[in-house]
Amino acid sequence: MINRTDILPANLHKIFYPKSIAVVGTIKVKRTVPGDIFLNILQTEFQGIIYPVSPGERSISGVKTYKYVVDVPDEVDLAVIVFPSSVCNLALEQCGQKGIRSVIIISAGFREVGKKGLEKENELTRIAEKYGISFIGPNCLGVINTDPVCRLNASFARSFPVEGSIAFLSQSGALCTAVLDYAQAKNIGFSKFVSFGNKADISEIELLYYLRDDPKTKVILMYLEEITDGRRLMEAAKEVIETSHKPVLILKSGRTEEGANAAASHTGSLAGKDEICDAAFKQAGIIRCSNIEEMFNIAIAFVYQPFPKSNRIAIVTNAGGPGVLTTDATIKEGLQLAAFSENTTLLLKRSLPTTANIKNPVDVIGDARADRYGAAISAVLKDDNVDGIFVILTPQSMTDIESIANEVSRSAANSVKPVYTSFMGQADVAEGIKILEYNNIPHYILPESMCKPFKTVYDFNNFIATQATVPLFSKPPANLTGKNLVEKAAVKTNRYLNEIESTDILEAYELPVTKKRIAISAEEAATISVETGFPVVMKILSHDIIHKSDPGGVILNIGSEKEAKNAFNNIIENVHKNMPEAKIEGVQVTKQIQNGREVILGIKKDPSFGPVIMFGLGGIFVELFRDISFRIAPVDKKTAYEMIKEIRSSGLLTGMRGTIPRDIEAVANAIVKLSSLAMDCPQIKELDINPLIVLEQGAGCIIADTKIILE
Amino acid sequence: MINRTDILPANLHKIFYPKSIAVVGTIKVKRTVPGDIFLNILQTEFQGIIYPVSPGERSISGVKTYKYVVDVPDEVDLAVIVFPSSVCNLALEQCGQKGIRSVIIISAGFREVGKKGLEKENELTRIAEKYGISFIGPNCLGVINTDPVCRLNASFARSFPVEGSIAFLSQSGALCTAVLDYAQAKNIGFSKFVSFGNKADISEIELLYYLRDDPKTKVILMYLEEITDGRRLMEAAKEVIETSHKPVLILKSGRTEEGANAAASHTGSLAGKDEICDAAFKQAGIIRCSNIEEMFNIAIAFVYQPFPKSNRIAIVTNAGGPGVLTTDATIKEGLQLAAFSENTTLLLKRSLPTTANIKNPVDVIGDARADRYGAAISAVLKDDNVDGIFVILTPQSMTDIESIANEVSRSAANSVKPVYTSFMGQADVAEGIKILEYNNIPHYILPESMCKPFKTVYDFNNFIATQATVPLFSKPPANLTGKNLVEKAAVKTNRYLNEIESTDILEAYELPVTKKRIAISAEEAATISVETGFPVVMKILSHDIIHKSDPGGVILNIGSEKEAKNAFNNIIENVHKNMPEAKIEGVQVTKQIQNGREVILGIKKDPSFGPVIMFGLGGIFVELFRDISFRIAPVDKKTAYEMIKEIRSSGLLTGMRGTIPRDIEAVANAIVKLSSLAMDCPQIKELDINPLIVLEQGAGCIIADTKIILE
């Protein structure tokens, strides 16, 4: 068996830069996938040799065909298989025999059609392993490489894109066709374009690493429907960003599929997958986009213009209204409006008419022509307080649109500061926009759309400066005692651990559990209460009860011996009445903590990303405002602090407006310890510390209740 | 003096439908405003007669000119004044003498350039009043009427739009040119197009009423920078919606200008103007748009397609990825995915290939041609569970885009259900999109963009059904006692009323104030405390102190006589130390209410909308989450309930998850009474009841603290 990891880079390179291609299973009929693939490669002026393999034809479009791929007399770098799924395995087997190691399988009819298809797909993987083949697909649109030394269009896309610096990867083939069409109209160029379909062999991960090393690619864009291995994706993206400074933009669909498995326990119902995906992407430095338009809006900002030093924007416009709208959007996006230096103000005053507005946003007035735009732009570009410029144009009768477009392009070319534009309208401004696009000036139909891309580039630049070299995960050493306890509990059939089991596990991880004692009679409850010291809290203990309050299984503020006895009896009575089938193991007595601030900590196992740590403030804040922070585990102390500060209600812990400053360090420590637990014990499906009571600064925190659910 | 209200409709009608026009101050030079206006009217094939008035010319473009407007030998319906601002008054005077009652003043150089300009503008208004003239402008782009019986282009816009049902009004002339250009490229037609500039005479309000009665207009769009009289705008919009069912869409800029007057008191700092504008628009049924694209996205949905019965969407697509993205957006927008009937499922199964997805979203698969789209659309259109259809197309090699566009158009034409489309991409799909536009099928570049317009139309339809006939405001009868108290307080120089004054006013409006007693010595404080019953609260009483806690002027939980004495002394000491300049009037003693839920009520006087009522839950919720509801006063009981239910934390009042259900009725009553106070007393700039303590259902609520600031 060949080690496929070693040969992967070489195989991948031949997928993008083959010197010879066999199109295996092509036919003469146009407007069919097998027919179009061959024609696309042929008509795009591929710089190597194409061998059509077609059992039923002698030639196609004047090119000699071969019956089988093994019949091709020369060496073949890349095979593109377009046979029906039923014979793809045979075709791949022959590719292996022929010594081809790089394959694209376009054909559909595999995993996506059900169990039988999956079997066929697994067969492909087996053959690939046997021969050391790397393949893209099946069920994909194909691969495009615009590099003029190759010019490969091994796809059934309708058009070949112009050359550019954007790489686009997509799990959906159909979306690719829309993207190509969209980009074509906007003159957006691509370096590589890959539809990877079912990713039975090569996935987005391997492609990420390849594109990192591709000198033609500056930005990597991706459409994903399913994240198979979230951690590997995070690690790959982080490494790509760190080592190459190439941004990774992902459009991930399926945002609302949460609620599919309405989770039994509290934390479960909170941890919507989509929020976790958001958190994971942020941790890795991945830029998540909400739609195709936004994705390309951001991509062109990355590709065409320098990174800004900071976030102070100057707006130059010939119309007040759009200037105001853009100011609103600039502030809302978290950018700043630059305050001009005295010198700039003087320069503007000198070069603009008196009716112009020389403050930011600069209004050069409706009758402005190219010279006036040029003067204003050059004045603000020189200002040290300005980090980037938004140029807005409305087509008024005096506006020389094309000259202004040229003027803006000239100014931007001579500057190290980013210049974005919005020539508003569509018909009249079309020629001007073409000039901007030709000169690599990002152009946006709406002036407001300039803000998000600017902010994204600015944030990415900060990420590179501050976080890129910090390791994504630093795995803590394993805690064998804790691990063992979980393993022991997992052996039992119960999925829900009881209070005692949970407490022991948390204790092993040095999490601040409270001393808990169990009473099995009213008398015992009273005695324990006296020993513990009033006030106390009593809670039902039962494997069968998750939400202890629901059947009346929790009583707070028990202040005397007599109250303690009554409380015990009431709890037993309530549970008997409301959940008669529940097996009662006793009633647990703990000291009631007063004047603490309640927070929630949790672990949730995500199908894509594995163990995730959750933090929020009190049940109500989480439930009503979804004020929660997530991180993919493991979480170090710095990240734990970030999680605490990220929630909007963190002021209640840090001591805003006269509230008591709480022991945040204790909370951060608890988060880190919980993260160790999560990493050690993959059996944990959900863990819910609710509440963790946080005392004043220096006084620590105490776990009041815990739920652990195993897988 | 002529009553201008009576003649306004006739005057306005002549602005849009003149039989003869004098262009007053035109010149021969092209590419200038005075020159272009005349040419635009001439070249657009105006259906009446044009008289150029130009002191320096004998003819322009072959048309005989007149030196002054009074020289025109025939009757003139409309004068368009393009003279420099310095002589506009003379021109308007002559128009009056000539008997012209309808005028558009294009010229700039008025209010927008400062005080001298404002004087000139006031002079215009005086002349208009003298002669009973109604005029649009000054400082505007002009007026367009596409109605073929008139064809008026009295503007310096570069192009004349196609005829349509959308009326567009704009305070910014420059934005108009961008909008016209944008709409032209999308084949969007207009009925009337008005740039009203400084609105010295005719404002958006008069235009709203005119457009309501204009049979050519179905939807009214507006760009506003400044709302002069918010209440009149609300009333006008509401009336237009109620009587004509024409939606009013407004793009209002200046969203972030809040914070300009960082308000002294608590409520002030919360009541950002923009949130108030949001609330006001919602009350009146106005649809607020965030940008031009969104505005037209919504407008075409209104104009082209029927209103949906409910919000259950069927998606038909030839690509899975965009189907998933659109499903996400549909759910996020608050729409539902339709569940198909058995019959529909059967129909789809019969007419689609086995690989197709016959569940919603329906995937007709990449090789679908028009027949398959047609079958799927007709099947789901027939389903009673479907209220509207989103059709998505990606341009794949087999896709017959134009035929599909025709098929969709045919299906939509035969249905009473709305059909929206997104043919993704741009270049390849262009012809298909044109067919859709021609057939009045709303088309959106992004499939996700179909959701917001659908939801907006659906909500508007609900507004008409449920709220349109409910009066916008029902003014409560005045409370003379309360009014007098405020007037008396206003006579004093102090802007901040003290606790006693505030309490008396609230009491007059039957708001639930607590019995408050003032102590001026530690002994007296102790005596009052005993009489009141422990625990008590003590608060400093001083006109000079707004935030009583800041200098240590509030002590809670005072439980004994001894504690009471200490508390008094501590408060006095704290205030002496921290605010030595404050004049202390005593210390106020009240019973401490326990176990209540704290809410905030307030009045804020908005410069555009007048008195506004505010409601939120406790300081932290308001400060951290801005969880507040606003309504323009007066507020009736039904609206008060809406305000309570609208905040995200309302569950804490209604009794969610084991919390105590609170006396919401008492809160609603308090809101209504506060609204009466607000309406009676325009002197109040801010009033802040913080907190109002809400007891259990049936037990009422109690005001714990109040601040009133007069203007």
Mass-distribution shape of chain A:
flat
Unreliable spans of chain A are 257-272
Mean pLDDT of chain A: 90
- Share in helix of chain A: 40-55%
Identify the strand order in the major beta sheet of chain A: 9-8-11-10-12-13-14
Descriptive overview:
- 2 copies of one chain form a homodimer.
- With 711 residues, chain A is α/β, with parallel strands linked by helices.
- Chain A folds into 4 domains: 214 residues, NAD(P)-binding Rossmann-like Domain (Rossmann fold), CATH 3.40.50.720; 161 residues, Rossmann fold; 78 residues, ATP-grasp fold, A domain (Dna Ligase, domain 1, 2-Layer Sandwich), CATH 3.30.1490; 114 residues, D-amino Acid Aminotransferase, Chain A, domain 1.
- The first copy, chain A, contains 24 helices and 29 strands.
- In chain A, strand 10, helix 5 and strand 11 form a beta-alpha-beta unit.
- In chain A, helix 6 runs parallel beside helix 7 and helix 17 packs antiparallel against helix 18.
- Chain A is flat.
- About 2% of the residues of chain A have low confidence.
- At the A-B interface, helix 5, helix 11 and helix 21 of A face helix 5, helix 11 and helix 21 of B.
Give the helix/strand layout:
The structure is a homodimer of 711-residue chains.
Chain A lengths: L3 H13 L3 E5 L8 H11 L5 E5 L5 E2 L2 E2 L13 E4 L3 H14 L3 E4 L9 H17 L2 E3 L5 E4 L6 E4 L7 E8 L2 H13 L4 E6 L8 H9 L6 E6 L5 H15 L3 E5 L13 H5 L2 H12 L2 E3 L2 H13 L7 E6 L2 H13 L3 E2 L4 H10 L10 E2 L6 H13 L5 E6 L7 H13 L5 E5 L6 H9 L12 H16 L13 H12 L7 H10 L8 E3 L2 H11 L3 E6 L12 E5 L2 H18 L7 E6 L5 E10 L3 E8 H8 L2 E5 L4 H10 L4 H4 L9 H17 L3 E11 L6 E3 L2 E5 L1
Parallel strand pairs in A: 1-2, 1-5, 5-6, 6-7, 10-11, 10-12, 12-13, 13-14, 15-16, 15-17, 15-18, 18-19
Antiparallel strand pairs in A: 3-4, 8-9, 8-11, 20-23, 21-22, 21-23, 24-25, 24-27, 25-26, 27-28, 27-29
